[in-house]
Amino acid sequence: MTYLTKLSAAALSELLVSKQVSAVEATRAHLDHITAVDTDLHAFLHVAADAALNTAAAIDARRAAGERLNPLAGVPIAIKDVLATQDMPTTAGSKILEGWVPPYDATVVARLRAAGLIPLGKTNMDEFAMGSSTEHSAYGVTRNPWDRDRIPGGSGGGSAAAVASFQAPLALGSDTGGSIRQPAAVTGSVGVKPTYGGVSRYGAIALASSLDQVGPVSRTVYDAALLHDVIGGHDPLDSTSLTDSWPSMAAAAQAGLKDGALKGVRVGVIKELSGDGFQAGVTQRFTETLALLVAAGAEITEVSAPNFEYAVAAYYLILPAEASSNLARFDSVRFGIRVNPETGSLTSEHVMSATREAGFGAEVKRRIILGTYALSAGYYDAYYGSAQKVRTLIQRDFAAAFSQVDVLVSPSAPTTAFKFGEKLADPMAMYINDVTTIPANLAGVPGMSIPIGLAPEDGLPVGLQIMAPAKADARLYTVGAAIEQLLEARWGHTMLSQAPALTPTEMFASEEGAV
Amino acid sequence: MTRSELMDYDKALELFEPVLGFEVHVELNTKTKMFCGCANEFGSGANTNTCPTCLGLPGGLPQVNKKAIESSIRLGLALGCEIAEHSRFARKNYFYPDTAKNFQTSQYDDPICHDGSITIELESGRLVTVEIERAHMEDDAGKLTHMGGATGRIQGADYSLVDYNRGGVPLVEIVTQMIEGAEHDAPEIGRTYVAAIREIAKALGVSNARMEEGNVRCDANVSLRPRGSNVLGTRTETKNVNSLRSVERAVRYEIQRQAAVLHAGGTITQETRHWHEDTGRTSAGRPKSDADDYRYFPEPDLLPMAPSRDWVEELRLTLPEPPAARRKRLQASWGFVNLEFQDVVNSDLLDAVEATVAAGASAQAARKWWTGEIARLANVAGVAADSLVTPVQLAALIELVEAGTLTDRLARQVLEGVIAGEGTPVEVVESRGLAVISDDGPLIAAIDAALLDQPDVLAKIRDGKVQAAGAVIGAVMKAMRGQADAARVRELVLERAQAIE
User: Fold this and answer.
1) Are B100 and B45 contained in the same domain?
2) Is A155 part of the annotated catalytic residue set?
3) Which residue in A173, A399, A415, B51 has the fewest CB atoms around it within 10 Å?
4) Active site: which residues (chain A) (predicted)?
5) Which fold has domain A3-309+391-498?
6) What is the sign of the dihedral through the CA atoms of B407, B409, B410 and B414?
7) Quick one: which H or E segment has residue B115?
């Protein structure tokens, strides 16, 4: 049954709908694969095997009874640990929430369940989604399936690695400054950050409320679209949720497969997101993809977004400011771990302080301190206030660019996957890695990353970022699916079929013959 | 500071000029909380009215209660405020265990209501206009109960319990401008101002406005400056003064205390102070500087609000008659003297009396019953007078008295029956058999028996000593178990004394 794990969600869905495969079989195949490979990769923080099989059996029973189900019913899915799940621990990668099982489901999780998807478990992430490498998880790193000495991206390294290593066809991520798109890029998978307000944040543990957005992770553009259709749409529990009615993203992706889908599409290349600081192989694959677009009839224009230069700086004021306030609730009073101080009286202040000292990692503390400082009286205008002005300028840059073009493109990340430890000692180097993805969050526009080949110098995946105007998420799926089809036609295979095979157990792999 | 160390009030006023400011929190009576769907109700089991949002669980998000916005706008309009075209919530960041999110969702630089004023009338007839700087929305904190200590305060407690039922309940905080020129009236201005806010909130129906349940809470700011100086003195903020009388006492106390400190060459610390109802004193709380850093920033989880002008005008049309105007109108129409009217107002029985009059009773009778017997019974039971009987029931009772069916004494017994839930006054009269006996037959029989029983009295009456009749009347009333009209009994006693053998 291992072939079941190689299938896209769409292909698996067809087998499920036609009853050639049961949801229990599909779920068991994925659970077996997780058992085989995840001890080494560590994409999952929690695997809910029994619950998944029970849910799958219930779906099979409903399907057998002739009930009309969502096409994705019975398809397994991995859930980033930032999303509240009432039957699984939810830690956001932090020790402070160790073992916490929320009394409720995030809206997106509730929608997954309603559509009959099978939650397999919770995936690893940088603590509270702060990071670009998943190295800041309190529960250990996740390895990149393409090279186990390298990072899977972050913060959603677990979801991307799970999908890229065929442990799940679909996953949910959250993207505050690139946490869906950058991991997708460095693992050769597809990741989408929807328009801000397009997908409910209720039950997503907040990092920076004005930037966070939940979105799909998958191996194909169409699969991401199917999942987007399940999780998207208005939620009255999230006041920033848009009330718009949305077109089918799946239909938009299918439109991209038609002949001439890219003809006349105006594609803007952002001058500021190229050149210096971009790895040669990344630039090469990006340039080749542009040529492919031209050949398919797209019009390429260079556009300038002069204020993108300030995006990272503004982001690292707004994010810590909001995070410092969002993370205040982790005080040991109502949930999570409680640590008593070694000395002094057990006042609420002392217990709160000892708990936060023990429960938060260094990167979280760094950002809380940064944000607290940025919001302080006398500094607010200079820091938070200025950053908000930059944000407005970046929104104007996007507006100006989208008055000329239909979509904007850039490499999804400046480099391919870097090695563990490479940027840990230098937070600025880690922050700069998000230069390509941050502007979309600051402006609230949707962005997608799709794989466009391997960098020749290291053989690691390169991603293309596509951005569209706010609420034009469907355009991403049309253009993304069209490019994906062109590339796969040229390669003669999918990107992830080239990923190295993962051996079930590493323990004896090389020495056994020599014994 | 003990009472004897305070400066005499008149002397304090001679040396210093008091400057006041009030922050009044009005708890709205919406069905649900400010930012979630949990019930906004007093007295539920601890932590039962809670959800991920008001418990501050990870992932919880706020949703604005439209009714709370509506109530805030109506309150703002009644206070003569401008309603902001653009308003937004802001986070006030501070750690405290009764605040689930460790920030309060409040408003900072864009409050929903601003720049209003109300004019209050003091007992002397002096009119004082209190300028209102702003009225903004925010969510309430949970309630801490400190266990194990002798005083119920946090000092000395072994542990504390938190009940988040009140956490997230909508509040409007009304902030006055500085009040100068209060002079000797300062304490009364405090009381009258808070009473006026309470009355307005009640008239609007936006709050239950019960101070004893914490629906209206007042923080009183007081500072003194020496006569002739135009430099403001350092202020103190006495928190959570929760009755009208306490507001008056707390302001007076702070004036006397600060005057004594300043006069002795001391300085006033800018701080919050706690009001102690039992001792009538304030004590130092925490230091409070103008630079307290709450790291306010706009709440990113909520959209800015832009209440449409049409909606605001619609709401303006729903405003009731201003309480001060209503009082003037009612006093004139009822013909009450000031004392009588104040009695009704101070007992919070204006609505009750008005409704009783509307149900057909005379104003004087309604006043007499509400502020007399009913208030007494309510006081004994520890409940609000208007929770005991309805105006319609009372009007029916008054009608029975005026028709001569009941004496006042009998009516009090009927009232008890009505309160006990035995039915309407007419039903109670019947079931308890309490009506005045208007048939002379049984009366005459009882009188004759009483006269014959007391021949010496009979002789005196016959001799023209009519005051002697009292003893017989008493015996007859007793025999009739009070169900006789004493005046009629008296008439008949005099008649029968001449008639019987």
Assistant:
1) yes
2) yes
3) A399
4) 80, 155, 179
5) Amidase signature (AS) enzymes (3.90.1300)
6) positive
7) strand B113-121
